[in-house]
């Protein structure tokens, strides 16, 4: 091993956290002797366990329990909250901006490294649809999940108090765009929560609400197969949720959702979950990318044609050596990301010690999805489950996968308590603009960040 190995991990998601976690275990002696250092650069000081976002939005799990604090689980790594905006791998440098960069006035910092792991993940793929940027909300972060929960409950408050039928109709109309995991699970959990919440309103009934799922293709949840996809459509429609297949959102300007089939829905809620795209950082590197903008990787998780550079997860096009058809890549999901991180970390250690690298090989075992409390679908090891058994499997699987025993215990405790007591139905939308009330009290006007925000609790 070289005298000192500086390992830079870009991203604190599944791949970033699990890679750093395994590296600090495998390189514990070297870290203790100062022969290695691991730096993790991440925009947030925590890793979000995204499969639990729908349950956090529905109030089944506390928001703090779907995130894992990186400094606690990576005590032997240097965690830097910031963003890598460019990578010059030929010079082994990364351009870093932090929360203090603007105030310092000295410009971005240049980090030097010996080995780099690129795992910045993906960002929402927003299309140039009129009104989308102004009125829609995504569903990739815990902040968006909690903001959406607050927003939905606030719409019930608006509908309950207004005397204008048009405002009431728009407040009780919820449009979700995208029929993948994020869209279907978010819709299922939030509709379940909202239907329960209406029992505490004297003039809002479940049938007053209109929930619409818009999907551009001819099926939803393709990961669970066509049969369970059709079952999911039937289950959602049985709950009076409109599922519009082969349909696109063409505009949501002026708080009116206009669909490609000609339908128009006045609405104050548009949730955009129609796909993701590679992180913009990848375009600011000198590393090879495929036609979709992802880093070209080898089965050993090195970046093709570049030494000392590694990638996995959403940002990487990793060949699937178990696939029947040649040229196939592994799916960009958590199941692969966690397992790729394990192989990636081991291969970095092997590379430092001059040993042969392992090939990443994992056959996809299946998928599970929740459709609300006690409802779900699952396709695991060739077996198809629906209803309560699938929902139970969904919970059991993700409880086993959420990182750290601390988080497992907290989530299990919350589920247990939720089974004994009634749901919480409180909206804390003001949390998103905590200074607004004081600014008004102090005689000022609310700043931009505390003004009416269509993406938050407005």
Automatic annotation (TrEMBL):
InterPro entries noted in UniProt: FAD/NAD-bd_sf, FAD/NAD-binding_dom, NDH-2
FAD/NAD(P)-binding domain: residues covered: 6-341
Keyword Oxidoreductase: yes
GO terms of molecular function: oxidoreductase activity
Biased composition (Basic and acidic residues): 446-458
UniProtKB keywords: FAD, Flavoprotein, NAD, Oxidoreductase
Enzyme Commission number(s) from the entry: 1.6.5.-
Entry annotated with the keyword Oxidoreductase: yes
UniProt region (Disordered), positions on chain: 439-458
Any Pfam family matching the protein: Pyr_redox_2
Superkingdom of origin organism: Bacteria
UniProt record similarity statement: Belongs to the NADH dehydrogenase family.
Protein name: NAD(P)/FAD-dependent oxidoreductase
């Amino acid at each position: 091993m070289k005298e000192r190995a500086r390992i830079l991990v870009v991203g604190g998601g599944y791949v970033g956290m699990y890679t750093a976690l395994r590296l600090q275990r495998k390189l514990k002696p070297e870290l203790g002797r100062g022969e290695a250092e691991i730096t993790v650069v991440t925009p947030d000081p925590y890793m979000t366990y995204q499969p639990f976002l729908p349950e956090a939005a529905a109030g089944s799990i506390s928001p703090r329990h779907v995130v894992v604090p990186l400094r606690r689980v990576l005590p032997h790594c240097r965690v830097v909250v910031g963003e890598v905006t460019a990578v010059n791998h030929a010079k082994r440098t990364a351009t870093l901006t932090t929360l203090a960069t603007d105030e310092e006035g000295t410009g971005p910092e240049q980090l030097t490294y010996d080995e780099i792991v690129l795992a910045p993940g993906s960002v929402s793929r927003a299309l140039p649809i009129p009104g989308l940027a102004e009125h829609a909300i995504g569903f990739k972060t815990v902040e968006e999940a909690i903001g959406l929960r607050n927003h939905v409950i606030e719409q019930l408050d608006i509908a309950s108090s207004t005397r204008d039928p048009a405002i009431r109709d728009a407040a009780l109309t919820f449009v979700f765009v995208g029929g993948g995991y994020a869209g279907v699970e978010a819709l299922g959990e939030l509709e379940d929560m909202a239907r329960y919440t209406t029992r505490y309103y004297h003039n809002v009934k479940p049938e007053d609400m209109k929930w619409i799922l818009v999907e551009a293709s001819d099926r939803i949840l393709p990961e669970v197969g066509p049969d369970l996809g059709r079952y999911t459509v039937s289950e959602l429609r049985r709950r009076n949720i409109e599922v519009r297949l082969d349909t696109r959102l063409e505009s949501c300007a002026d708080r009116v959702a206009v669909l490609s089939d000609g339908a128009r829905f006045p609405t104050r809620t548009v949730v955009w979950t129609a796909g993701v795209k590679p992180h913009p950082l990848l375009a600011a590197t000198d590393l090879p990318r495929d036609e979709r903008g992802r880093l070209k990787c080898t089965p050993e998780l090195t970046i093709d044609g570049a030494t000392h550079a590694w990638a996995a997860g959403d940002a990487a096009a990793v060949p699937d050596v178990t696939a029947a058809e040649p040229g196939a890549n592994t799916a960009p999901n958590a199941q692969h990301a966690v397992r790729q991180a394990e192989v990636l970390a081991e291969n970095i250690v092997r590379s430092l010690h001059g040993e042969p690298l392992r090939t990443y090989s994992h056959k996809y075992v299946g998928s599970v999805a929740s459709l609300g409390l006690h409802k779900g679908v699952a396709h695991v090891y060739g077996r198809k489950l629906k209803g309560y058994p699938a929902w139970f499997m969904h919970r059991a699987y993700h409880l086993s996968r959420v990182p750290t025993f601390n988080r497992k215990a907290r989530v299990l405790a919350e589920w247990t308590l939720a089974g004994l007591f009634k749901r919480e139905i409180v909206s804390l939308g003001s949390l998103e603009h905590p200074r607004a009330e004081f600014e008004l009290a102090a005689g000022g006007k609310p700043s931009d960040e505390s003004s009416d925000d269509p993406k938050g609790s407005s």
